[in-house]
Amino acid sequence: MAINLTIFILLRDEAKVVFGLNVLFFEGYYWQVLSSMFLHSGWTHVILNMLVLFQFGTILEKYLGSFRFCILYLCGGLACSLLSAFYIYFEALYFGRIYNTVGASGAICVLMGFYAFVDKSSTKGLIVALLLISFVPIFMGVNIAWYSHIFGFICGYMCAKFKLLKGKIR
Predict the structure, then answer these.
(1) Which tens digit of pLDDT belongs to each residue from 67-80?
(2) Is this prediction's pTM over 0.85?
(3) Which conformational region is residue 143 in: left (phi greater than 0), alpha (psi within -120 to 50 degrees), or beta?
(4) How far apart are CA 8 and CA 11, in angstroms?
């Protein structure tokens, strides 16, 4: 959370083209799959993401331990960003739409997906929440990387399903 807030405060908007996830990734800007996870478009974006990160991060860090939690967050976020990069490329190539994606939402949705598998009683509610946070803002005219949310949730769920990280209640 501290990294997200520090980068948000210090980084100028102009730098988001270089560090946000966009088609430049395919021209050698490979760091974008990592750097975009720590950028945010505005105060509302960063505050909402940090609240949800705190909510799920606290629970899963206790379950997995700090090291495994960081692995889940970073590796899951990278996988989600990579999938999003290919979606962005597809949209640019076939529809001429140019996106610059920023935010921790994909990595946070990895946590939500992981938790949905671990706590079966919350699965349906988390899927509903995922759909709401992914599509309601679009209907309100807010630009949102809904595909990153979906990719993240699937990555987290699959990570838990295939027992890539094991945890226990501490």
Answers:
(1) 999 999 999 999 99
(2) yes
(3) beta
(4) 6
